[in-house]
């Protein structure tokens, strides 16, 4: 059993995961408040991003404070990692989901995933959002943020956001 201050090795019980997700979610408001207090921050361009356990609170965030969301290494689906996904995407706000095509935790390749119907990405959760993009990186590890494909997808997504906001 993991504590919030310790390390854990998946899988652990869903209640522990949910405590971790709550901890990560509690980081959003202070970070947003800190950004709002800075004169150099363009409030129209603040993006909420997270990876793996940090991506769940990004998907669940119910506010409208962010210009876009970026979700790395999380599939937005029911599985061992959440009691329920509780995705709260705004219908026409930009969302980027970058995940390995065979993520060891969230694709069907995981033997303890707990959901044989998963797609392994957020496409179902983002259906109907014309500003959503799902990028599957072949043969990528779970931690893929610094891979060229993930970086290029992120750069393109942010460039599009800047173009739409007329800031570039």
Description:
By secondary structure, this protein is of the alpha/beta class. It contains four helices and four strands. Strands 1-2-3-4 form a four-stranded parallel β-sheet. The longest helix has 17 residues, at 148-164. The protein is globular.
What's the alpha carbon Rg, rounded to whole Å? 16 Å
Q: Output the CATH class name.
A: Alpha Beta
Could you please say which CATH topology applies here? Rossmann fold
**Amino- and carboxy-terminal Cα gap:** 48 Å
Count of distinct strands: 4
State the share of residues found in helices, binned by percent. 25-40%
The gross shape turns out to be: globular
Strand order of the largest sheet: 1-2-3-4
- This entry's quaternary arrangement is single chain
The largest pleated sheet is described as: 4 strands, parallel
User: How many discrete structural domains?
Assistant: 1
Q: Indicate the low-confidence ranges by residue numbers.
A: none
């Amino acid at each position: 059993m993991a504590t919030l201050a310790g390390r854990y090795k998946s899988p652990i019980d869903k209640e522990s995961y949910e405590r971790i997700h709550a901890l990560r979610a509690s980081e959003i408001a202070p970070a947003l408040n800190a950004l709002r207090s800075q004169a150099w921050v363009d409030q129209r361009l603040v993006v909420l991003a997270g990876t793996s356990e940090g991506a769940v609170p990004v998907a669940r965030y119910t506010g409208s404070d962010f210009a876009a969301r970026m979700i790395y290494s999380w599939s937005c689906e029911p599985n061992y990692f959440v009691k329920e996904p509780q995705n709260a995407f705004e219908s026409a706000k930009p969302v980027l989901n970058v995940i390995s095509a065979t993520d060891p935790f969230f694709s069907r390749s995981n033997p303890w995933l707990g959901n044989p119907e998963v797609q392994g990405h957020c496409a179902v959760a983002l259906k109907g959002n014309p500003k959503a993009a799902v990028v599957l990186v072949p043969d990528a590890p779970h931690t893929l943020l610094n891979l060229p494909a993930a970086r290029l997808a992120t750069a393109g997504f942010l460039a599009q956001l800047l173009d739409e906001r007329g800031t570039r």
